[in-house]
Write a structure and sequence with these properties.
Helices cover 39% and strands 23% of the residues. The chain is α+β, with helices and mostly antiparallel strands. The chain has one domain. The protein has a 3-stranded antiparallel β-sheet, with helices on one face. A hairpin with a 2-residue loop joins strand 1 and strand 2. The chain is globular.
């Protein structure tokens, strides 16, 4: 799977909040802290950079996919 090269951090935050049960807790500098309690507690930081670097995006997707028990492709649907 090829990761998108033009995805912004802001768009990723909105997508995770709308579709994956995350909520924005606070922001530290350019990093938005997201939290979920479904299926267990998890906090992740998403930088509000445009575009997100490929390695950063991959790490965010891997963390969310591992926690939610889905694939990275499923997370990216609709972004």
């Amino acid at each position: 799977m090829k990761l998108p090269r033009d995805l912004s951090g802001e768009k990723m935050v909105k997508h995770l909040c709308r579709h994956w049960e995350y909520r924005q807790v606070h922001q530290v500098g350019s990093h938005v802290i997201l939290e979920t309690n479904s299926p267990g507690h998890q906090r992740i930081a998403v930088p509000e950079h445009h575009p997100l670097r490929v390695g950063t995006l991959n790490a965010i997707l891997a963390a969310v996919a591992g926690h939610k028990g889905v694939t990275k492709e499923e997370i990216l649907k609709g972004v």
